[in-house]
Amino acid sequence: MRFFICWLATMLMVSPVFAQETATPNGIADNRRNAIALTGATVYLPGQGYQEDATVLVRDGVVVNVVAGTDARDGYFAIDMAGKYVYPGFIDLYSGYGLPTPGRPVQRGGAEVVRSGNQAYNANDAIRSHYRAVENFTPDADSSETLRDLGFSSVLSHHADGIARGTSTLVTLGNHNANEAVVIADAAAHYSLDKGSSSQTVPVSLMGSVALLRQTYLDAQWFAAHEQRPFVDESLEGWIRAQSLPQIMEVDNWHQALTVDGVAQEFDTDYVIRVGTDAYQQAEKLAATGARLIVPVNYPDAPDVADPFIADEVSFSDLKHWELAPYNLRLLSEAGIEFALTSAGAGADFWDNLRQAVANGLPHDDAIAGLTTVPARILGVSDRLGQLDAGALANMVVTSGPLFDDDTVLLENWVRGERFVLNTGLDERRGQYSLMAGNRQLAVALDFADGGAKLSLLDGNAEPDADASVDASIGNDLISLTFTAASDTGPTRLSGWSVDNGWQGTGQTAAGEPIDWRLTYTGPLVAPEPEPDSAPVTSATDALPSPVLYPFSAYGSESLPAQQDVVIRNATVWTNEDMGILVTDVLVRDGRIAAVGDNLSAGGAVEVDGTGKHLTPGIIDEHTHIALFSINEIATNSSMVRMQDVVNSEDVNIYRNLAGGVVAAQQLHGSSNPIGGQSSIIKLRWGMAPEELQLDDAPKFIKFALGENVKRSTNPASIRYPQTRMGVEQVYVNAFSQAQQYEQRWNAYNALSNAQRRDTVMPRRDLVHETMLEVLKGERYVTNHSYVQSEINMMMTMAESFGFNINTFTHILEGYKVADKMAAHGAGGSTFSDWWAFKWEVRYAIPYNAALMQLAGVVVALNSDDAEMSRRLNQEAGKMVKYGNVSESDALKMITLNPAKLLHLDDRMGSIREGKDADLVLWDEHPLSVYAQAQTTWVDGVPYFDRARDQQLRQYIADERARLIAAIISEEE
């Protein structure tokens, strides 16, 4: 048959190109110059749009040219592509094709693993930058076929193991050996925040991963500075070599994307960031980074909402994400972000998902660019991949229609000029036919969609006849069809077999009369008229089904509240200043307290009637763990980690704290180790991005810890050092002694002349030692988890021996025993009101602790250390009036001015005074009462919580949940 012969001749002629010329042939060498012309196609040329009736000329696996017209040139074997569309071959930048499956770490129980492997690699096994994918790449026929079926002709393959993953290799997906498949041996360097198969204990946290990444940048810079390396480290050598390549960083969500962008800025590099499907939630922030993205096209499954009790457990953000994730690419495009697309995670749903994205408003050209030109630009191979200009590899995708039409089928995938038929038979048999059935002649169109044949009778205008019907079944050789024309009284039934240019056979008319018939090919289908520079696609709705909220969670809003000039009149004002408590007015302008006094001139400010209400400074929580993605790193000295790297600005506890009058908090590392991480001090600016929560120019703090947690009393399986209280002391002595030695080495090096430095190994920058030095120099303050008086005394003595003071003892439930020594030392105390007996070392805690420390002259604050208590700190302060007979003003200061003092922020916060930040709370009752509710909480003059608006948000959440659940149920039905 014509179709089979033509296809077979073409496949025999097109042998693999770019053979490995150094290989010795075993048999007859095939040295034919393969010249092919794909004629009459509609060709998509990036930047130019669609060119109709064009011919693609290919020789030896390389594009020669794309020319107008349907005639093949002399010397080219012509393949008729009339009615078909040709696109540049697609590129996937995120794949593990042809590489071993990454391993996972072996669980070690309670043992701490600190040693790396025995090879000359990095001290941390998560740094695998020595790995070269090209050395481990083996073509995989099954995997390559799966990728080709999706339209990909080349992939960037990397080993997804570790924080530094080494280099990837760019390969094509034809029937070539590894030597011939590789386009670029080392195409890009890869990174992540997942330590992968490393069995070492550190890092165990997200912030630990960021710290290791930062330290490795410093190590590599130090290593590279020595022409004569101080030792062998193949991982650092690989890192150094790979810095000139594209740097691809994989993250799980937009929070991590913004964090790693900060690392990139710190070390003057640019990441191409492989993001998640939530990137749309902060598209503007991601656009501001200037980073190019690699974006998956997989969408979340619909949450299980059939059972109303189970539905109640589905978070509001999960419901919203289910609805808006299919708009991710559109919103990234609208933000002006350049992105490549990956099939990773989507699998067989890739095209359905991508077409849905286009239907939802992703521009057609941006979608194609994400598969072609953008990944090619990222890798610097635009001359060879992603387009069909002369000299490019002949990687092409042939489709039955415009790429994103629902019924379009991927017909062929050409890889370096090697033809792979994806849908057998669809390419050669579709077209227009003449049907001779008895004495009748009809025009018929044969097309293929959704894997099946579709025959339709045509009217006089060569358009499908709406009044006719055809049902056909077509195999490789046999055909059966039943048709009813507009004037027929019944169906005509035919069956037959393939012949040259069509089929023939016998059948019966509607009246049962036998007839002979023949279906003869007359020409290609008439191609749809494409729009200029774009293909017809489903119209996108202008509006999203629901708005993106900030933050993307319950109590989020489409727009953030604005800063207000406001005057609160006739409120009972708790100033925490010499004015004491008085009924007066407070004026706020530009986020600061402008005046406190009677009958203030407002000058257009918002008027708030405070009559019968109480106005206080905002509450400051000196010790919290809310709004963090991770809390503990496990290293004995984790001073290199930063809590600011793991701030979760979407945590609903921020909003709940605002509802309890809290305006700021110190986010602390946990107490799993003696020396924890660097603190983050935030203002609770609900809806802002993590970096916008950070308090500008805030003093620097670090978390230390003592007691049962540190020596692992609750984990008998642990063998991590230290395991005794005296061992804990030695950790501090060692850490500070080593920091002093570190400083001495740098001082000695800096004192050398340039000539002397050339013969001297420069000291290595160490983030741990640098942080400890900041403490010794008074540049970073210590807040110290503590319970037992003996350890409290030990810490003060140890600190004094190194010339610094402990700034704050937190918890400090035996502080009343050593309050006089704390006052003499200059340490403050941040404690609980009435927590005791929750573990052995707090058995001597008493509810009079805070009052007794205050009587001794200690600055005392009350902290939460608990997400639930943190929104009721005003009640904790009220307990001090009950237990310790503390004055109401002093009790309020324990949650406002005193924590501001402990954080060295009392010049800005903690009291109501002209010039201070407008962090204010308006209460409907006495602020220390259990009945008091915050009506409005201002942070920098912005009403981030307002009780009336809160009621509206609650109703909105209820309505949205109901709508989304109904939509999910409707879709499943």
Structure, explained:
- This protein is an alpha/beta fold and 973 residues long.
- Among the domains are: 431-523, Lipocalin, CATH 2.40.128.120; 556-618 and 911-947, Urease, subunit C, domain 1, CATH 2.30.40.10; 619-720 and 784-909, Metal-dependent hydrolases (TIM Barrel), CATH 3.20.20.140.
- Helices cover 26% and strands 25% of the residues.
- The protein has 26 helices and 41 strands.
- The strands form six sheets. Strands 1, 2, 3, 4, 5, 14, 15 and 16 form an eight-stranded mixed beta sheet that branches. Strands 6-7-8-9-10-11-12-13 form an eight-stranded mixed beta sheet, sandwiched between helices.
- A hairpin with a 5-residue loop joins strand 23 and strand 24.
- The model is unreliable at 1-18 and 530-541 (pLDDT under 50).
Gyration radius from CA atoms, angstroms: 36 Å
Mean pLDDT: 91
CATH class of the domain at 619-720 and 784-909: Alpha Beta
Shape: globular
**Percent helix among the residues?**
25-40%
Catalogue the unreliable spans: 1-18, 530-541
CATH topology of the domain at 619-720 and 784-909: TIM Barrel
CATH A-level architecture of the domain at 619-720 and 784-909? Alpha-Beta Barrel
Number of strands: 41
Domain Amidohydrolase-related: 331-401, 855-939
GO molecular function: hydrolase activity, acting on carbon-nitrogen (but not peptide) bonds
Protein name: Amidohydrolase-related domain-containing protein
InterPro entries: Amidohydro-rel (IPR006680), Metal-dep_hydrolase_composite (IPR011059), Metal_Hydrolase (IPR032466), Metallo-dep_Hydrolase (IPR051781)
